[in-house]
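Support request, priority: normal
Reporter: lab tech (M.K.)
Component: structure prediction queue

Hi team, I submitted a job for Lipoprotein from Hymenobacter citatus yesterday, and the status page still shows it as pending. I've pasted the exact input below so you can check whether something in the sequence is tripping the parser. The sequence length should be 344 residues. Please let me know if I need to resubmit or if it's stuck on your end.
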Amino acid sequence: MPAFVSRLISPAFFVSSGLLLASTSCGSRQERANPDAASTASVEQVASTPPPVDSVQLKLEAMRRDSLWADSVARVNGQLPGAILPGHRIVAFYGNIRAKGMGILGREPKEQMFRKFDGVLKEWQAADTTLPVLPALHSVTITAQGAAGKDGKYRLMNSKATIEETMRWAKEKNAILFLDVQVGLSDLEHELPKLEPYLKDPTVHLGIDPEFAMATKGVRPGKKIGTYDAKDVNYAIKFLTRIVRENKLPPKILMVHRFTQGMVTNYQNIKLDPHVQVVMHMDGWGNPILKKDSYKAYIQKQPVQYTGFKLFYEYDPRPAPHHMMTPKEVLAELNPKPLYIQYQ
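Reply from support: The job had stalled in the queue. We restarted it manually and it finished. Here are the results:
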Protein backbone atom coordinates (compact mmCIF):
# COMPACT_ATOMS: atom_id res chain seq x y z
CA MET A 1 0.00 0.00 0.00
CA PRO A 2 1.45 3.42 -0.85
CA ALA A 3 2.47 5.61 2.02
CA PHE A 4 0.01 8.30 0.93
CA VAL A 5 -3.53 7.04 0.66
CA SER A 6 -7.00 8.47 0.90
CA ARG A 7 -8.16 9.71 4.30
CA LEU A 8 -11.23 7.61 4.15
CA ILE A 9 -13.57 8.27 6.38
CA SER A 10 -15.53 51.98 4.06
CA PRO A 11 -18.45 51.17 5.64
CA ALA A 12 -21.00 49.37 3.53
CA PHE A 13 -24.68 50.01 3.86
CA PHE A 14 -27.73 48.20 2.63
CA VAL A 15 -31.13 49.47 1.50
CA SER A 16 -33.97 46.98 1.54
CA SER A 17 -35.89 46.64 -1.69
CA GLY A 18 -39.62 47.38 -1.97
CA LEU A 19 -42.39 48.83 -4.09
CA LEU A 20 -43.23 52.52 -4.11
CA LEU A 21 -47.00 52.74 -4.49
CA ALA A 22 -48.65 55.95 -5.76
CA SER A 23 -51.78 56.61 -3.69
CA THR A 24 -54.92 58.04 -5.35
CA SER A 25 -57.99 59.74 -3.94
CA CYS A 26 -61.25 61.26 -5.15
CA GLY A 27 -59.97 64.81 -4.58
CA SER A 28 -61.44 67.68 -2.58
CA ARG A 29 -64.42 69.90 -3.60
CA GLN A 30 -61.90 72.64 -4.39
CA GLU A 31 -59.98 70.30 -6.73
CA ARG A 32 -63.22 69.31 -8.51
CA ALA A 33 -64.28 72.89 -8.80
CA ASN A 34 -60.87 73.95 -10.13
CA PRO A 35 -59.46 71.04 -12.14
CA ASP A 36 -56.49 73.11 -13.34
CA ALA A 37 -55.39 73.74 -9.77
CA ALA A 38 -55.80 70.05 -8.96
CA SER A 39 -53.76 69.15 -12.01
CA THR A 40 -51.02 71.60 -11.05
CA ALA A 41 -50.89 70.20 -7.49
CA SER A 42 -50.72 66.69 -8.88
CA VAL A 43 -47.76 67.57 -11.12
CA GLU A 44 -45.96 69.24 -8.22
CA GLN A 45 -46.55 66.17 -6.04
CA VAL A 46 -45.15 63.84 -8.70
CA ALA A 47 -42.18 66.14 -9.25
CA SER A 48 -41.37 66.11 -5.53
CA THR A 49 -41.62 62.32 -5.24
CA PRO A 50 -38.11 60.80 -5.09
CA PRO A 51 -37.27 58.26 -7.78
CA PRO A 52 -37.42 54.58 -6.81
CA VAL A 53 -34.30 53.38 -5.03
CA ASP A 54 -32.29 50.73 -6.86
CA SER A 55 -31.28 48.86 -3.72
CA VAL A 56 -29.33 46.20 -5.59
CA GLN A 57 -27.21 48.83 -7.33
CA LEU A 58 -26.59 50.67 -4.04
CA LYS A 59 -25.50 47.43 -2.41
CA LEU A 60 -23.11 46.65 -5.25
CA GLU A 61 -21.62 50.14 -5.10
CA ALA A 62 -21.14 49.86 -1.34
CA MET A 63 -19.40 46.50 -1.76
CA ARG A 64 -17.16 47.96 -4.48
CA ARG A 65 -16.16 50.81 -2.15
CA ASP A 66 -15.48 48.32 0.61
CA SER A 67 -13.39 46.22 -1.75
CA LEU A 68 -11.34 49.23 -2.87
CA TRP A 69 -10.85 50.22 0.76
CA ALA A 70 -9.76 46.67 1.60
CA ASP A 71 -7.35 46.56 -1.31
CA SER A 72 -5.79 49.90 -0.31
CA VAL A 73 -5.40 48.84 3.34
CA ALA A 74 -3.92 45.52 2.29
CA ARG A 75 -1.42 47.23 -0.01
CA VAL A 76 -0.20 49.48 2.82
CA ASN A 77 -0.31 47.06 5.75
CA GLY A 78 -0.12 43.69 4.01
CA GLN A 79 -3.43 42.59 5.49
CA LEU A 80 -6.79 43.80 6.76
CA PRO A 81 -7.54 44.55 10.43
CA GLY A 82 -8.39 41.39 12.34
CA ALA A 83 -6.49 39.08 9.97
CA ILE A 84 -5.15 36.02 11.81
CA LEU A 85 -2.24 35.26 9.49
CA PRO A 86 0.71 35.67 9.46
CA GLY A 87 0.65 36.93 13.05
CA HIS A 88 -0.29 33.54 14.54
CA ARG A 89 0.39 29.87 14.05
CA ILE A 90 -2.86 27.92 14.07
CA VAL A 91 -2.75 24.46 15.65
CA ALA A 92 -5.87 22.39 15.01
CA PHE A 93 -7.39 19.08 16.07
CA TYR A 94 -9.28 17.50 13.14
CA GLY A 95 -12.20 15.10 13.02
CA ASN A 96 -15.85 15.08 14.02
CA ILE A 97 -17.27 14.99 17.52
CA ARG A 98 -19.72 12.23 16.49
CA ALA A 99 -17.16 9.91 14.85
CA LYS A 100 -14.25 8.06 16.43
CA GLY A 101 -12.68 7.12 13.11
CA MET A 102 -12.25 10.53 11.50
CA GLY A 103 -9.58 12.03 13.70
CA ILE A 104 -8.44 13.03 17.16
CA LEU A 105 -11.47 15.34 17.40
CA GLY A 106 -14.07 12.75 18.36
CA ARG A 107 -11.74 9.77 18.85
CA GLU A 108 -11.21 10.43 22.53
CA PRO A 109 -13.62 11.70 25.19
CA LYS A 110 -13.88 15.47 25.21
CA GLU A 111 -11.95 16.24 28.40
CA GLN A 112 -9.23 13.71 27.61
CA MET A 113 -8.88 15.15 24.12
CA PHE A 114 -8.67 18.70 25.45
CA ARG A 115 -5.92 17.72 27.90
CA LYS A 116 -3.92 16.28 25.00
CA PHE A 117 -4.65 19.41 23.00
CA ASP A 118 -3.30 21.62 25.78
CA GLY A 119 -0.05 19.66 25.75
CA VAL A 120 0.29 19.99 21.97
CA LEU A 121 -0.34 23.73 22.10
CA LYS A 122 2.40 24.11 24.73
CA GLU A 123 4.83 22.12 22.56
CA TRP A 124 4.24 24.39 19.59
CA GLN A 125 4.55 27.55 21.65
CA ALA A 126 7.83 26.28 23.11
CA ALA A 127 9.11 25.38 19.64
CA ASP A 128 8.61 28.94 18.39
CA THR A 129 8.26 31.60 21.06
CA THR A 130 8.17 34.41 18.47
CA LEU A 131 4.70 33.58 17.16
CA PRO A 132 1.58 33.13 19.32
CA VAL A 133 -0.22 29.82 18.91
CA LEU A 134 -3.95 29.96 18.16
CA PRO A 135 -5.98 26.81 18.90
CA ALA A 136 -8.53 25.55 16.38
CA LEU A 137 -10.99 22.72 15.98
CA HIS A 138 -11.37 21.47 12.41
CA SER A 139 -14.66 19.65 11.99
CA VAL A 140 -15.64 17.63 8.92
CA THR A 141 -19.13 19.06 8.55
CA ILE A 142 -20.22 17.89 5.10
CA THR A 143 -18.83 14.38 4.80
CA ALA A 144 -18.28 12.14 1.78
CA GLN A 145 -20.27 8.92 1.96
CA GLY A 146 -19.98 5.41 0.55
CA ALA A 147 -23.73 5.39 -0.11
CA ALA A 148 -25.32 7.62 -2.73
CA GLY A 149 -28.15 9.02 -0.60
CA LYS A 150 -31.52 10.09 -1.93
CA ASP A 151 -30.09 12.55 -4.46
CA GLY A 152 -27.16 10.39 -5.52
CA LYS A 153 -24.52 12.90 -4.38
CA TYR A 154 -22.59 10.72 -1.88
CA ARG A 155 -22.33 13.31 0.89
CA LEU A 156 -24.08 14.07 4.17
CA MET A 157 -24.19 17.23 6.24
CA ASN A 158 -23.99 17.20 10.02
CA SER A 159 -27.13 18.10 11.90
CA LYS A 160 -27.65 21.63 13.22
CA ALA A 161 -27.31 20.25 16.75
CA THR A 162 -23.90 18.69 15.98
CA ILE A 163 -22.57 21.86 14.34
CA GLU A 164 -23.75 24.05 17.19
CA GLU A 165 -22.28 21.71 19.80
CA THR A 166 -18.94 21.76 17.98
CA MET A 167 -19.09 25.57 17.97
CA ARG A 168 -19.64 25.50 21.74
CA TRP A 169 -16.61 23.23 22.18
CA ALA A 170 -14.48 25.68 20.21
CA LYS A 171 -15.68 28.71 22.15
CA GLU A 172 -15.10 26.86 25.42
CA LYS A 173 -11.47 26.41 24.33
CA ASN A 174 -11.14 29.99 22.99
CA ALA A 175 -10.44 28.33 19.67
CA ILE A 176 -11.44 29.20 16.14
CA LEU A 177 -13.45 26.63 14.20
CA PHE A 178 -13.06 25.31 10.66
CA LEU A 179 -16.03 23.70 8.93
CA ASP A 180 -14.67 21.23 6.38
CA VAL A 181 -16.51 20.24 3.20
CA GLN A 182 -16.28 16.98 1.24
CA VAL A 183 -18.70 17.43 -1.66
CA GLY A 184 -18.79 13.91 -3.12
CA LEU A 185 -20.63 14.13 -6.45
CA SER A 186 -22.08 17.52 -5.52
CA ASP A 187 -20.15 20.79 -5.86
CA LEU A 188 -19.20 23.85 -3.82
CA GLU A 189 -21.93 25.98 -5.40
CA HIS A 190 -24.58 23.72 -3.85
CA GLU A 191 -22.84 22.87 -0.56
CA LEU A 192 -21.23 26.08 0.73
CA PRO A 193 -24.48 28.08 1.02
CA LYS A 194 -25.65 25.54 3.60
CA LEU A 195 -22.86 26.75 5.89
CA GLU A 196 -23.43 30.49 5.48
CA PRO A 197 -25.39 30.95 8.75
CA TYR A 198 -22.43 29.54 10.71
CA LEU A 199 -19.77 31.40 8.72
CA LYS A 200 -21.33 34.70 9.81
CA ASP A 201 -19.68 34.03 13.17
CA PRO A 202 -16.28 35.79 13.10
CA THR A 203 -14.58 32.78 14.71
CA VAL A 204 -15.75 30.25 12.08
CA HIS A 205 -13.66 29.51 8.96
CA LEU A 206 -13.78 27.09 6.02
CA GLY A 207 -11.92 24.07 4.71
CA ILE A 208 -12.48 22.40 1.32
CA ASP A 209 -11.18 18.94 0.46
CA PRO A 210 -10.46 18.10 -3.19
CA GLU A 211 -9.81 14.44 -2.32
CA PHE A 212 -13.55 13.87 -2.11
CA ALA A 213 -14.64 16.16 -4.97
CA MET A 214 -15.65 13.51 -7.49
CA ALA A 215 -17.73 15.34 -10.10
CA THR A 216 -14.99 15.20 -12.74
CA LYS A 217 -14.09 11.59 -11.83
CA GLY A 218 -17.55 10.11 -12.20
CA VAL A 219 -17.10 7.62 -9.35
CA ARG A 220 -18.09 7.53 -5.71
CA PRO A 221 -15.71 8.89 -3.05
CA GLY A 222 -12.89 6.54 -2.11
CA LYS A 223 -12.53 4.96 -5.55
CA LYS A 224 -10.18 7.68 -6.80
CA ILE A 225 -8.62 10.86 -5.47
CA GLY A 226 -10.76 13.84 -6.47
CA THR A 227 -9.77 17.27 -7.69
CA TYR A 228 -10.52 20.99 -7.63
CA ASP A 229 -9.48 23.51 -10.23
CA ALA A 230 -8.49 27.11 -9.49
CA LYS A 231 -12.01 28.15 -10.50
CA ASP A 232 -13.43 26.08 -7.62
CA VAL A 233 -11.05 27.67 -5.13
CA ASN A 234 -11.92 31.08 -6.56
CA TYR A 235 -15.62 30.37 -6.05
CA ALA A 236 -14.95 29.62 -2.37
CA ILE A 237 -12.90 32.81 -2.03
CA LYS A 238 -15.68 34.92 -3.57
CA PHE A 239 -18.28 33.19 -1.39
CA LEU A 240 -16.34 33.99 1.79
CA THR A 241 -15.52 37.50 0.61
CA ARG A 242 -19.21 38.30 0.24
CA ILE A 243 -19.95 37.05 3.76
CA VAL A 244 -17.09 39.11 5.20
CA ARG A 245 -18.20 42.29 3.42
CA GLU A 246 -21.91 41.98 4.11
CA ASN A 247 -21.41 41.21 7.80
CA LYS A 248 -18.40 43.50 8.40
CA LEU A 249 -16.26 40.60 9.62
CA PRO A 250 -12.49 40.23 9.90
CA PRO A 251 -10.91 38.19 7.10
CA LYS A 252 -11.84 34.52 6.83
CA ILE A 253 -9.38 31.68 6.35
CA LEU A 254 -9.90 29.20 3.53
CA MET A 255 -7.93 25.97 3.99
CA VAL A 256 -7.47 23.76 0.92
CA HIS A 257 -6.31 20.15 1.42
CA ARG A 258 -3.66 18.81 -0.92
CA PHE A 259 -1.27 15.85 -1.10
CA THR A 260 -1.02 15.09 -4.85
CA GLN A 261 -0.30 17.08 -7.98
CA GLY A 262 -3.75 16.49 -9.42
CA MET A 263 -5.77 17.52 -6.37
CA VAL A 264 -5.48 21.21 -7.30
CA THR A 265 -5.10 22.22 -10.95
CA ASN A 266 -4.09 25.61 -12.35
CA TYR A 267 -2.99 26.87 -8.92
CA GLN A 268 -1.45 29.93 -10.58
CA ASN A 269 -4.97 31.11 -11.52
CA ILE A 270 -6.17 31.31 -7.91
CA LYS A 271 -7.19 34.94 -7.34
CA LEU A 272 -6.49 36.23 -3.86
CA ASP A 273 -8.68 38.74 -2.04
CA PRO A 274 -7.70 40.59 1.16
CA HIS A 275 -10.95 39.46 2.79
CA VAL A 276 -9.85 35.80 2.62
CA GLN A 277 -6.55 34.22 3.65
CA VAL A 278 -5.77 31.02 1.74
CA VAL A 279 -3.86 28.12 3.29
CA MET A 280 -2.65 25.31 1.03
CA HIS A 281 -2.44 22.37 3.39
CA MET A 282 -0.24 19.29 2.79
CA ASP A 283 -2.15 16.50 4.50
CA GLY A 284 -0.72 13.20 3.31
CA TRP A 285 0.49 10.59 5.79
CA GLY A 286 3.47 8.27 5.93
CA ASN A 287 7.23 8.36 6.01
CA PRO A 288 8.49 11.80 7.15
CA ILE A 289 10.82 11.91 4.14
CA LEU A 290 7.91 11.43 1.74
CA LYS A 291 5.80 13.98 3.63
CA LYS A 292 8.57 16.57 3.37
CA ASP A 293 9.08 15.82 -0.33
CA SER A 294 5.36 16.26 -1.00
CA TYR A 295 5.32 19.55 0.90
CA LYS A 296 8.17 20.78 -1.26
CA ALA A 297 6.62 19.59 -4.55
CA TYR A 298 2.99 20.65 -4.07
CA ILE A 299 3.14 23.46 -1.50
CA GLN A 300 6.54 25.13 -1.64
CA LYS A 301 6.98 24.98 -5.43
CA GLN A 302 3.36 25.91 -6.18
CA PRO A 303 2.81 28.79 -3.74
CA VAL A 304 -0.56 30.45 -3.28
CA GLN A 305 -0.45 32.39 0.00
CA TYR A 306 0.04 30.55 3.33
CA THR A 307 0.95 26.93 4.02
CA GLY A 308 -0.21 24.11 6.28
CA PHE A 309 1.00 20.66 7.32
CA LYS A 310 -0.83 17.67 8.79
CA LEU A 311 0.36 15.16 11.39
CA PHE A 312 -1.37 11.81 11.89
CA TYR A 313 -1.40 10.19 15.32
CA GLU A 314 -2.27 6.76 13.96
CA TYR A 315 -0.72 6.58 10.49
CA ASP A 316 2.52 8.60 10.52
CA PRO A 317 4.31 6.17 12.89
CA ARG A 318 3.52 3.14 10.69
CA PRO A 319 5.51 1.08 9.98
CA ALA A 320 8.36 1.32 12.44
CA PRO A 321 10.80 3.04 12.57
CA HIS A 322 8.72 5.87 11.12
CA HIS A 323 7.46 8.48 13.56
CA MET A 324 5.18 11.47 13.79
CA MET A 325 7.27 14.59 13.31
CA THR A 326 7.71 16.87 16.32
CA PRO A 327 7.04 20.61 16.25
CA LYS A 328 10.76 21.32 16.25
CA GLU A 329 11.30 18.97 13.30
CA VAL A 330 8.48 20.56 11.30
CA LEU A 331 9.83 24.06 11.85
CA ALA A 332 13.43 23.08 11.17
CA GLU A 333 12.83 20.99 8.05
CA LEU A 334 10.00 22.71 6.14
CA ASN A 335 10.34 25.89 4.13
CA PRO A 336 8.31 28.04 4.35
CA LYS A 337 7.46 27.23 7.95
CA PRO A 338 3.76 26.30 7.97
CA LEU A 339 1.39 28.62 9.81
CA TYR A 340 -1.39 26.05 10.00
CA ILE A 341 -0.74 22.71 11.74
CA GLN A 342 -3.38 20.01 11.85
CA TYR A 343 -3.49 16.79 13.89
CA GLN A 344 -5.76 13.94 12.81
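The CA atoms of residues 16 and 55 lie 6 Å apart. The mean pLDDT is 85. Let us know if anything else looks off. Ticket resolved.
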